[in-house]
C-alpha cells in the first residue's frame, strides 16, 4: 500500500513534490491533469465546484494514472475526512487549523484505532492503492495509518501563534500554508501578486517550525515559477497549477493574440467605419 502512495514516498525521500489543484469536477479533467506529470492532485471540495460523488470519481481517475489523489475537505469534520479516505484518497488536507487540539482532531479522523477513531468498512479505498498486486481490506486496515498523508492547513494568525504546538502533534505529516488567507488574517492581503514582508516572515516561521518538528512543509502557489522558488527554499509539497486559473490564462492569452492580429484589426476598422456612416453601434464587433 505504501509503495502506491506517490506523495508519501516522495515526502519521505525528501521532496520536493509538485502538485496540481483541481476545482472543476470531472474524471476526464482529473486524467488530463494527471497525465501532465504531477506527483499529486488536490481535489478541492472546500472552495472547488466538487460534490461528494464527483470527488469519488476524481479520486479514482487520478489514482488509476499513478498519481496521488489528495482531497481538501471543506472543514475539520470527521465525517468529511472519512468520506475522502473511504473514496481512496492518499491523503487529506484539512483547512482552518487554529490550535494543536484542532490538529489532534484531524489525526483522530485519519487514523484507525488505536491511534484514532476512523471507522472501517469502505469497499472502494483498496483499489486506489494497487501497485503490482491488489491489496485486501485487511491489508488496507493494517497499513493505512502509516501510508496515508495527513496535512493540516495553516492560514490564520491563531495558527501562526500556535505553530510550534501544532507542528509537534504526532500523526501530522505536513503543514500546508495557505498564503492568501494567512495574509488576510494578518492584515497583509496579497494584492496584485505581491506579498508583504510580514507575510513572508510568517511563512518562514511556519516552515522553520515544521522542520524543527521533523514535519514537511507545503504551500499553495499560483505559478510554476513561484513553485520552483519555494522548492529551492526547501519546501516539500508545492502546488504549481490550478485548473481554473490555467484555463482562464490559456483562453485569455489565445484570445488576446487573436484579437491583436492584422485580420481582426482590419475587420474592426471596417465595422467601425460602417457604424459611423450608419449611426449603428459597433459594440458587437
UniProtKB/TrEMBL annotation:
Signal peptide: none annotated. The keyword Chloroplast does not apply. InterPro entries: Aldolase/citrate-lyase_domain, GP_PDE_dom, HpcH-HpaI_aldolase, Pyrv/PenolPyrv_kinase-like_dom, Pyrv_kinase-like_dom_sf. Residues 1-104 form the GP-PDE domain. It comes from the Eukaryota. Gene3D superfamilies: Phosphoenolpyruvate-binding domains (3.20.20.60). Pfam families: HpcH_HpaI (PF03328). Keywords: Lyase, Metal-binding. Belongs to the HpcH/HpaI aldolase family. This is GP-PDE domain-containing protein.
Amino acid at each position: 500500500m505504501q509503495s502506491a502512495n506517490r506523495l508519501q514516498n516522495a515526502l519521505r525521500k525528501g521532496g520536493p513534490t509538485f502538485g496540481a489543484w483541481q476545482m472543476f469536477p470531472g474524471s476526464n479533467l482529473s486524467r488530463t491533469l494527471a497525465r501532465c506529470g504531477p506527483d499529486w492532485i488536490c481535489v478541492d471540495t472546500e472552495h472547488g465546484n466538487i460534490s461528494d460523488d464527483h470527488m469519488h470519481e476524481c479520486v479514482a481517475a487520478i489514482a488509476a494514472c499513478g498519481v496521488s489523489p489528495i482531497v481538501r475537505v471543506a472543514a475539520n469534520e470527521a465525517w468529511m475526512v472519512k468520506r475522502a479516505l473511504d473514496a481512496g484518497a492518499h491523503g487529506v488536507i484539512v483547512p482552518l487549523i487554529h490550535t494543536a487540539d484542532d490538529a489532534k482532531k484531524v489525526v483522530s479522523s485519519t487514523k484507525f484505532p488505536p491511534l484514532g477513531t476512523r471507522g472501517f468498512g469502505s469497499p472502494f479505498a483498496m483499489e486506489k492503492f494497487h501497485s503490482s498486486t491488489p491489496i485486501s481490506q485487511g491489508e488496507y486496515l493494517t497499513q493505512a495509518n502509516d501510508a496515508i498523508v495527513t496535512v493540516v492547513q495553516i492560514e490564520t494568525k491563531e495558527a501562526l501563534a500556535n505553530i510550534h504546538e501544532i507542528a509537534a502533534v504526532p500523526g501530522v505529516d505536513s503543514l500546508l500554508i495557505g498564503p492568501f488567507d494567512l495574509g488576510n488574517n494578518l492584515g497583509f492581503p496579497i494584492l496584485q501578486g505581491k506579498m508583504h514582508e510580514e507575510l513572508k516572515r510568517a511563512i518562514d516561521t511556519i516552515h522553520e517550525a515544521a522542520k524543527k518538528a521533523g514535519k514537511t512543509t507545503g504551500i499553495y502557489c499560483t505559478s510554476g515559477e513561484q513553485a520552483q522558488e519555494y522548492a529551492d527554499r526547501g519546501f516539500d509539497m508545492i502546488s504549481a497549477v490550478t485548473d481554473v486559473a490555467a484555463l482562464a490564462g490559456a483562453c485569455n492569452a489565445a484570445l488576446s493574440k487573436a484579437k491583436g492580429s492584422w485580420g481582426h484589426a482590419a475587420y474592426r476598422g471596417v465595422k467601425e467605419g460602417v457604424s459611423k456612416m450608419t449611426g449603428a453601434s459597433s459594440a458587437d464587433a
